[in-house]
Amino acid sequence: MKKIGIIGGISSASTLHYYQMLHDLFYEQYHHYYYPEMVIESLNFQYFTDLENENKLDEYKQYILKSFHNLERAGADFAIMAANSPHSVLEEIRNDIPIPVLSIVDAVGQKARDLGLKKLLLTGIAYTMRSNFYQTGLAKYGIEVITPTVEEQEIINKIIFSELVINLATEASKQTFLKIISSYSVDSVILGCTELPQLLSQNDTDHCLLNSLQIHCEKTLKYVCNR
User: Fold this and answer.
1) Residue 154 sits in which domain range?
2) Helix (H) and strand (E) counts for the chain?
3) pLDDT tens, position by position, 53-100
4) Which NCBIfam families does this chain map to (predicted)?
5) Which tens digits make up the pLDDT trace of 22-48?
6) Are residue 65 and residue 149 in the same domain, yes or no?
7) Together in a domain, 86 and 143
8) At what angle do helices 57-73 and 45-53 cross, to 10 degrees?
9) CATH code at 173?
10) Cα–Cα distance between 101 and 119 in angstroms, integer?
């Protein structure tokens, strides 16, 4: 099996969920403990988010690119990023990355296409929602992506950074999030932050949810096992 390289720490909460889900999904499929090997490159979360918020794109790209090279030197056969936002620059740096990278955006797009979804609401941190990499990435699958209002984006962003990144999820925040998404007529809602699945599950809403973390993990295991 291929050795997985994970760029994590952005945040540690979602990295832990990636690690656990990859193992859980593998066992569910194969019922043995010959788990794929993994190496994690854990980034400085505050430094990373500062680069995003201050729009220091050159430093941002170089920090991410350096991490891919570190994974390659550690023996990873391919890499994933355990967050949505760094995919905003993936296509710009892909040619300089020494190993294959499985994109979370492509994974979500392929899943939405397979489900016949055409119009999606993107939720996540403010940086992700105000960027256009999801819109661009899913357009090739014939899928339209819309975002909440600026005010709603700030509310969601606050929930993520004040609670979810430190493994907290309050009922009040869940209800706030559900109220926001309930006002949109879409085929599905992208949980486009890998911490958001901590806040709610499919049982909490009639909206179809696209859990980007789970979808990414499923695609990763298929690649690991050559399926």
Assistant:
1) 105-212
2) 10, 7
3) 999 999 999 999 999 999 999 999 999 999 999 999 999 999 999 999
4) asp_race
5) 999 999 999 999 999 999 999 999 999
6) no
7) no
8) 150
9) 3.40.50.1860
10) 26
